[in-house]
Amino acid sequence: MSLEKDRGFDLRSWIQCLQADLPIVVLCITGFLLAWLIFWEIDASLNKNGAVALYSLVSNNLGIQSVGGVATLGNSIWIPFVFYLYVLRRGQYDWTSALVLAVAMVTAMALSDILKVVFDLPRPFQEPALGISPRFETPTDHGLPSGHTTSAFTVATVVWTRYPTWRIPFTVLAIATGISMVILGLHYPSDIIAGAFLGVFCGTFGVSMARIRRHADHG
Questions:
Q1: Other C-beta atoms within 10 Å of 120: how many?
Q2: Over the stretch 45-73, which tens digit does the pLDDT of each residue have?
Q3: What is the rounded distance in angstroms from the CA atom of residue 72 to the CA atom of residue 133?
Q4: d(Cα 192, Cα 39) in Å, to the nearest integer?
Q5: Are 189 and 50 spatial neighbours (Cβ–Cβ below 8 Å)?
Q6: CB 108 within 8 A of CB 206
Q7: Band of pLDDT at residue 218, cut at 50, 70 and 90
Q8: Model confidence at 176: pLDDT above 60
């Protein structure tokens, strides 16, 4: 075994992860920045009108609770999914998938929190003129990107790559999670779009990391 392998997963390998799927990485970064630029710098009315329109779709308590349930599921489904893959499944492929998803989710949560602070943008219920009140919960951190949406799209991206037969339900859940966060008055459309691109980025990074590591171990 070489000294390179003994050092584990070094910075060079991390860079290789990004280079391996460079078109997707560039697309995600561009999409994230465009979500901020278009909806905040070019025409903020699109953001505000979109938030009000989706918020107005649901008004009864049962509907709000249902939407909140979808948002919660999309944000936390990775936990039982990792448990299922790592504990209840027996194949090496599923164990690796569990680790891939766990690493991707840690990356997603870290980047989401950092970017919230960097962009320092408000949530819709923090602007009284919109007439939006927080439903289901009242977060205190910044808005862009949506952490729930980032989590849901991270899971969907890993599943899309490693479990093709499960693509549709996880993708639908990710999209529904994003829409739910706007209906609940907790995010603008820009936050959702940015979170979706960030989630795809983190999921792709996790999958690429496993691929590079596997090649290094057998190289």
A1: 10
A2: 999 999 999 999 998 999 999 999 999 99
A3: 18
A4: 11
A5: yes
A6: no
A7: low
A8: yes
Calpha distance 188→47 (Å, rounded): 6
Backbone angles phi, psi at 158, to 5 degrees: -65, -45
Q: Tell me 85's DSSP state.
A: I
What are the two backbone dihedrals, phi and then psi, of residue 131, each rounded to the nearest 5 degrees? 70, 30
- The answer for residues whose C-beta is within 8 angstroms of residue 151's C-beta and 6 or more apart is 74, 75, 76, 78, 105, 108, 109, 112, 177, 199
Residue type, 131: G
Residue 137 one-letter amino acid: E
Q: Coil, helix or strand for 139? A: coil
Instruction: Look up tokens 């278009």; give the residue.
Output: 38
Domain 20-214 fold: Vanadium-containing Chloroperoxidase; domain 2 (1.10.606)
Domain ranges of the chain: 20-214
Report d(CA 10, CA 99) in Å as an integer: 18
Instruction: Specify whether the CB–CB gap between 143 and 116 falls below 8 A.
Output: yes
The answer to whether 51 and 130 have CB atoms below 8 angstroms apart is yes
